[in-house]
Amino acid sequence: MHLIYARETARHTNNNYYSNYFFCTFRCILIGVVVLIFAKTKKESKKKEEMKNRFEQTMLKTQIEIQDQPLAYIASEIHDNIGQILFLAKINNNQITKDNVESQIELIDELLGKAFSDLREISHTLKNNRFHQIGLSESIRQLLHNIERTGKYTTKFESIPSDEIDGLIHGNDIILFRIIQEIINNILKHASANHINIFITKENDDIAVSIENNGVGFDLSIIKQEKQGIGLHNIYTRAKMINSTVEIMSTIDVGTTIILKFKSQ
Fold first, then answer.
1. Mapping DSSP to helix (H, G, I), strand (E, B) and coil, where does residue 130 land?
2. Fewest CB within 10 A of the end CB: N or C in the chain?
3. What is the spatial distance between Cα 11 and Cα 264, in angstroms, rounded to a whole number?
4. Taking CA 129 as the corner, what is the angle to CA 135 and CA 245, rounded to the nearest 5 degrees?
5. Which residue from 184, 210, 182 is spatially nearest to 198, judged by alpha carbons?
6. 111, part of any domain
7. Residue scoring higher pLDDT (177 or 234)
8. pTM of the model
9. CB of 250 within 8 A of CB of 217?
10. d(Cα 259, Cα 246) in Å, to the nearest integer?
11. What is the C-alpha separation between 160 and 201, in angstroms, rounded?
């Protein structure tokens, strides 16, 4: 009797063991399947997000750069380039005194002549021929030179060699220059600064452009919340288009630094 009871007990124990083993195995397999499905879903979601971002960048680039959109192009050129020249002419006009009338009028006449020349270029070609002839670095130097000639600002420009820039930004230099122009426009109009620095450096295979001024500064929290105004909107839109990030650092009564980091593709 005892022997039969012991055998029954052992058999029952074995059945419980195999049952528990089967249940644990099934649970592990089920958890593994769920984890794999989740990982696959997450990977597909990330892939879809990346595809969406690439599509948005392509669409943005098409909207701004395609030559079949002449009105948008002309508006951009007038706002970024000619508008800036005319603003500099206005500054020079306000700087006229009885001691510098001739030199200031000569400079204003030169600036207005450049504005007229640029207007003719827009109407005849609708292209950025001048920029592509002299390149990014020289365009920045000429821009800062014109600003310094107002007598109201000092500037500094340092850059890695032009061929290194060209090799990393792959034809996006005109868009990068338009962003720099937009930032300079904002400095001239709103910063109350008298000094501007522009530095172009290389970080691994990426380009970093730092634009600094010693103006009044502003409250970053308001800017981050609102992102209002055509100038700031254009900066963020164009930066996204060329896979660039925008970092803004500002201190009231000290100045502002904007860093553009262009991710090479």
1. helix
2. N
3. 69
4. 50
5. 210
6. no
7. 177
8. 0.61
9. yes
10. 6
11. 6
Domain annotation covers residue 237: yes
Q: What band does 73 get if pLDDT is binned at 50, 70 and 90?
A: low
Per the domain annotation, does 263 fall within a domain? Answer: yes
Q: Give residue 61's domain range.
A: 1-65
Angle made by CA atoms 18, 22, 28, in degrees to the nearest 5 = 145
The number of residues making up the chain comes to: 265
* Domain boundary, last residue among 11, 30, 65: 65
Q: What is the CATH number of the domain that holds 215?
A: 3.30.565.10
Spatial strand order of the sheet with 244-251 comes to 154-159, 195-203, 206-213, 255-262, 244-251
- 3-state class of 164 per DSSP? helix
Whether residue 28 is predicted with pLDDT greater than 80 in this model: the reply is no
Q: Mean of the pLDDT values across residues 146-168? A: 89
Angle value at C-alpha 134, between 125 and 244, nearest 5 degrees: 90
Does residue 11 belong to any structural domain of this protein? Answer: yes
Of the residues 65, 81, 97, which one is the last residue of a structural domain?
65
pLDDT score, position 34: 62
| Percent of the chain residues past pLDDT 90, beyond the cut | 25
pLDDT, mean over the chain: 76
Token look-up 């420009």 returns 157
How many domains does one find in the chain?
2
